Structure formats: C-alpha cells, structure tokens
Amino acid sequence: MLFKLLFLCSNSQQQAILKNESVSKKYYIIDFDSTFTQVEALDELARISLQDRPDRELIYKKIEDLTNLAMEGKLSFRESLAGRVQLLEANKDHLKQLVKHLKKLVSTSFSRNRNFFKHHADDVLIVSGGFKEFITPVVLPFHIKKENIYANTFVFNEEGKIIGYDENNPLSNEGGKVKLLKELQLQGEIHGIGDGYSDFQLKESGMIKKFYAFTENIERKSVTEKADHITPSLDEFLYVNNLPSAISYPKNRIQCLVVGDVPEAAVKYLKKDGFSVKQASSLEDKQLKEAGIILLGNKESVPVEKLTKATKLKVIGYFGNSKKHIPQDACTDRGIVIFDNIKKPESVAKSIAKFINTGDAFKSSNFPNIPLPKVKNGHRLIHIHRNVPGIMASVNQVLADMQLNIVSQFLMTNERIGYVITDINAAYDKKVLKELKQIKDTISFRVVY
Asked: What sections of the sequence does the record tag as coiled-coil (predicted)?
C-alpha cells in the first residue's frame, strides 16, 4: 500500500510520506543478561564449566566482579569481557547445558508477555555484549527474528573449547552498542531497555529517545539514577508506552501495605510476584489511600470508617480469623475481597496473587467463591455489583452493542453482591470499559488482562 501511494505522489510528497513513516516507526532495543534473563549468562557458564575445579569459588568471584565493574561503568567492557572469557575454561558441551539452564531463567515478566514479541517481531532487537551461541536459542521461541539478534560470537579450537571471541565485532568493544546502532542506522523512534551502563550509553550518545532501567532482577544505582524511567518489569514498560500486555495494570504499581505480625513467607511471596510492599506500624489514612492490598497480622483490625479512606483497596489478607476483626459486610459492599488462614500463611498470599492475576475469588471468606480457568488469547473483565435484578442483562447488552463475542462467563452471588467474570476474545474500544463502569449498582470494575 505504501509503495502504491508513493508511486502516485510527486517527489516532494514521497519524501514527506517516507519521513512520516520513519518517524512513526518504533524500535525496542532489549538487553539479554539480567534483563531478558534473570542472570548473567557468563557467570552461569562459569558455574557449569568450573564445577569440578577445587578453586571454583575464587574464580566465580573474579568473574562476577568483572561483570559488575563493567555494568557499573567502572571497567571498560573490553577488559571485562576478555578477563571473563579467559577464566571460563568452557566448551560446546558446557554451552548446551547453559542454554537448557537459561531457558528456565527467562525473566518472569518477559515469559508472560510472549504476545508482545509475537506482534512486534519486526520492531524488537536483542542487543547484547553476551554471545549468540547461548542467546539465540533462548530468544527464538519468543518470535524474535534471528536477524534481529546482535551479540558477540565465540572462537573455538578443534576440540570445541572456547579460546576467545571475534574481536572485530563492535559489541566486543567499549561503547559497542552505540557503534552498532550507528552502523544499523535505524529510521524511527528507538527505546532501550536494560540493566547496565552499556545500555545507558545509548541514551547518553543520543542514539535513542528513552532509556528504561530494568530492575526486575538487579538494580544498579549508577544506572537507575541516569534513566528516563525505572521499569521494575516488562509490564511497566508496556503500560507506560500503551503497548499490549499480558496484564492490564503493572503489579509493581499495586501497593501492598503490611501491618502487624505477618509471616515473612507471605511477604516474600507477594514481593516475588511483583507487588510493591511497604511495612507500617498502623493503618494511617495516607497509606490507606494508596493501598491496593493490605496484609494484617492476627488480632489487627480495620474499623469501618477506615475503609472509606481505602479508595484503591481490592483485597485484604488476614493471618487469623478475619470475622472477628474485619467488617465483612462493609468490605463486601465496597468490593473488597478477604482471604484468611492462620495455619497456612503462604496460602493467603497465593490466594491474593491469584485474585489480582486472574480474578479467582476461591476460598474468600466474604465473596462468592469462583475458581477460574485462565483464558488464552483473550481479555478478562471483572464486574462487581449489588445483588439486584437485571445487572447481567445490562452487562451483556453493553458487550452486544460493541459486537464483542463472549468466550466464557462466570457468575456467583451472595445476599449482598454479584461477582461476574467475562472473557472476550477480541480487541475492544475503551468506550466499553466506561459503559460497564456506569451500569447502575456497579460497585467496581476492572480489566484483569
């Protein structure tokens, strides 16, 4: 279509069209180590190749130090790379083991957002100071094109042992990512995502519009303080750039307030799942206003009047018998789900995460219990309303008016509320969300994914 349009236009019009086309095009430059994966691959390769060496711990430490010095900008990348490769004592068999290991260590938020890579296969470039021998087999299953993978390559001897690397590759040098992008001459708006100093250099050089410091796996102060945006997950990056995501709202933006004697296992579970966790000595109004989740230790309580301050609150986790300390009806009327358990504290955290992630309210002490399957290639909408006649008809009429096909629908009620989950299989106009929120007797509404 573009070529046909160009053919019909004058030279000046053609130039204007091509200029607009290049401006509208966006590229996403993504690092591999500690970004696409949770670990530094060369460090992991060392643990495989040196596992039989009696001095392995000393060598591991040297390799990790070389990695960190380069990532913090305190050592040239060339010096760091040469030093690490020299210490590896690795071969092709070790690389096979490494690839198998790395496939299990893809960053959590990358794993759940495969569809982003599928739909933006032409726009995503993996640019790394690591090596194609282990990067390519890890990222290819994510629909990333082989020609869009830029990294170093090892040099092997006849026995398959790593003896060096291609020193002519720009990525083996200090400022290699900048040199590579100059060679590529990408026409469009470029965004960079990474955890290290070499990623920030792209922004420093003026080669990219924005640099996003990725902190899901490691946070380097020397990098984050220079970033345009700190992104604790890929979900956050997709959200701020209005790109399709596996979840509708980044979990790092959902604040979990912890008060009282809450088991550490539960706190760790929610932190690992990506929620922002804050400890507090009591339920202060200012903190309540921002909390999406509250974890309360046994015998802690929430007065009814405090709930009016908790405008973002979606769920309470209680480590004891919540019925004695939490106003069940008031929470239900405000669409706040309660999970409690004194014997299995981690199960409370798991239930909370599952509710936020999928809408599953099974084992709630105050909500209709709906165990839910996960829908693939679709969207899940949650509507909580007062239990009055006609709500389901209103919900379905809105969807019908927007010509949205319902894949599955779940409804449970108690004497106070109705809880309906609707899965649809098509993209939707944001107008539908506004109309669902405006249905009479709606308590709350949200898109899960």
From this structure: 78-105
Claim to verify: residue 82 and residue 140 sit in the same structural domain: yes
Domain that holds residue 426: 379-447
The CB density around residue 415, as the number of other CB atoms within 10 Å, is 7
| CA separation for the pair 179, 182 (Å, rounded) | 5
Residue 92 confidence (pLDDT) = 96
Same domain, 229 and 256: no
Strands 154-156 and 162-165: antiparallel
Domain-ending residue, one of 308, 325, 358: 358
Instruction: Give the largest CA-CA distance in the chain.
Output: 78
pTM above 0.90, yes or no: no
The DSSP H or E segment spanning 404 is none
- Is-contact 165 131, C-beta < 8 A? yes
37 and 94 assigned to the same domain: yes
Same domain (yes/no): 221, 328: no
What is the gyration radius of the CA atoms in the chain, in angstroms?
Answer: 26
Based on the fold, state whether residues 113 and 223 are members of the same structural domain. yes
Q: What is the pLDDT of residues 269-307, one digit of tens each?
A: 999 898 999 999 999 988 999 999 999 999 999 999 999
pLDDT score of 178: 94
User: In this structure, what CATH number is given to the domain that contains residue 114?
Assistant: 3.40.50.1000
How far from 178 is each of 24, 83, 185, 199, CA to CA, in Å?
Answer: 22, 22, 11, 9
The secondary element (H helix, E strand) that includes residue 298 is none
Tell me, yes or no, whether 60 and 169 share the same domain.
Answer: yes
Q: What is the DSSP string of 23-66?
A: HH-EEEEE-IIIIIBSS-HHHHHHHHHTTT-TTHHHHHHHHHHH
Which amino acid is present at 220? R
- Can you tell me the distance from the alpha carbon of 235 to that of 40, in angstroms, rounded to the nearest whole number? 21
Paired sense of beta strands 124-131 and 26-30, if any: parallel
- Is there a single domain that holds both residue 53 and residue 81? yes
Instruction: Quote the CA–CA distance of 68 and 196 in Å, as a whole number.
Output: 9
Tens digit of each residue's pLDDT (9 = 90 or more) over 165-197:
898 999 988 889 999 999 999 999 999 999 988
